[in-house]
Amino acid sequence: MSDTELHYICQPTGLRPVAQAIEFLTTQEFLADEPACRRLWDLVETQFRTRSKFLAVWGGVRFVAVHRNADERADGFLLVNAPVNWQIDYVVVGPEARGQGIASALVVETANQAFLRGVPYVMLTSKASLRPLYETCGFIPIEDPAPETADLSDDLLEN
User: Per the structure, how many domains does the chain have?
Assistant: First the structure.
């Protein structure tokens, strides 16, 4: 059984503390950092089912949040697509860096940057099993209206 996906939204209303140092870069700034670009691609190759999915998203990416380890090696990334509101497309943390709060720091810093830039909402879609992580970061799940619609359809069919 696969983990269902939920849609989440956050309305940044102030700055929140971030437990890890995070760089928040424009895509141009990020692309100038060749070692970080290579590291992101290494993670993409091992963590995403298809590279084409990542490449389809990359065209809309406007910002990249980056965490670096003590050796200054990039080990966590978050991609932001920013048409009007911000959409977090990927949160990626290297296997060796998991469990250290890096994903939370990337998400909270992104919400902080949205607040500083006057962005009204930050949205994302992720597995339901990650709900506690995103709720801790200030996101709330958007409930799926499908069950109500299904009930209404059943009533109409019976009448």
Answer: 1
